[in-house]
Amino acid sequence: MAKRYHSARVPAPPISDNKRCHELPRRYPVTDSSDRPLSYLDAGVDIDAGNALVERIKPLVAATRRPGVLTGLGGFGGLFHLAQRYRDPVLVSGTDGVGTKLLLARRAGIHNNIGIDLVGMCVNDILVCGAEPLFFLDYFACGKLDVDTTTAVVEGIAGGCQQAGCALIGGETAEMPGMYGPGEYDLAGFAVGAVEHDQLIDGSGIDEDCVLVGLGSSGPHSNGYSLIRRVLERGNADLDQAFDGTTLGDALLAPTRIYVEPIQRLLGQVKLRGMAHITGGGLTENIIRVVPEHFGIEINTGSWDVPEIFQWLAQEGGIDPNEMRRTFNLGVGFVLICPASEVSQIGKLLGEPAPVIGRVRKRGDGGRVTFVP
């Protein structure tokens, strides 16, 4: 059963009372030993729990409302009006999940942060084009709906939307017995943003005068968790053990940083030629995606401090440096590509460390991405 929580039209309850059931012709023999009519609840789907969830999340969704939203909870589709805000808009969309970080969140019993991760992974992607996130939708699937757990997840999603300045405009909650085990659930998110056509950032202006500026991450974000879980298993690590002023579990489950607010401070103020969100593929594979084919990049590995959590993972797992670079962000979650002359202005506008971590160069005979000490 899939129940749309942005829809007020709840699926009609199954014909389960005796009166209506016996009005139907019995074409097939009843095999249940109790000889009683079955209900959707007997099949593992609790419509009442779904309705309770809708009531719990209504204020969470309302808190994300922004100009342009035309509907609240109640329709079959979320409506958003671009109005006169844009002259020549290009819509930018993105979708993502949070991968096996979900398994670690479930193990730790921390479910609200994972919703922030979901939003961050989607809005950071569309931000790369210079787009302003407008609205977000989510998909939550489980075997048996736990209202408290699902509310905590949606609470995180709503909080992430508030950080990103976008509206949580709708979603889907699917309760599917037999597909997921007890306590298991999965998530997907969908973000839509807009940018003026003549302000689209697509990397086409990148040249040899450009440098790479790194913005700090909050940890591994939502990438590399299959490897992280393998490291934990190998060392039989305790998530509650003290680690760098917090616990290991908290360090690993720190929510993905959402870069919308700092990047919006830069747009229109500095000449950004390209941007990259460092996700799966790490530093090795993400930055080069926005660089024209006839250029490469050189990354100076000593230009920023690698957070303790990545050093711990490398040591505990015996992970090769090249593997670390192509799996994790290593403390750099977002990269700006701009002329070197713009670096000082970026620092002033952001008010946070934004080190130059590398440069663009002409493509040589070797690989397009090189790392230097």
Descriptive account of the structure:
The chain has 373 residues and is of the alpha+beta class. It folds into 2 domains: 198 residues, PurM-like, N-terminal domain (60s Ribosomal Protein L30, Chain: A); 163 residues, PurM-like C-terminal domain (Phosphoribosyl-aminoimidazole Synthetase, Chain A, domain 2, Alpha-Beta Complex), CATH 3.90.650.10. Helix content is 31%, strand content 22%. The chain has 12 helices and 13 strands. The strands form 3 sheets. Strands 9-11-6-12-10-13 form a 6-stranded mixed beta sheet. A hairpin with a 2-residue loop joins β7 and β8. α2 runs parallel beside α5 and α4 runs parallel beside α5. It starts with a strand and ends with a strand.
Could you state the order of secondary-structure elements as H and E? EHHEHHEHEEEHEEHHEHEHHEHEE
Q: What is the fourth-level CATH superfamily of the largest domain?
A: PurM-like, N-terminal domain
Instruction: Assign an overall shape.
Output: globular
- First CA to last CA: what distance? 54 Å
The radius of gyration over CA amounts to 24 Å
Cross-sheet strand order for the largest sheet: 9-11-6-12-10-13
Give the low-confidence spans: 6-28
The total number of structural domains is 2
Q: How much helicity do the residues have?
A: 25-40%
Determine the mean pLDDT: 89
| Structural class estimated from helices and strands | alpha+beta
Might you state the CATH topology name of the largest domain? Answer: 60s Ribosomal Protein L30, Chain: A
The total beta strand count reads 13
By CATH reckoning, the class of the largest domain would read Alpha Beta
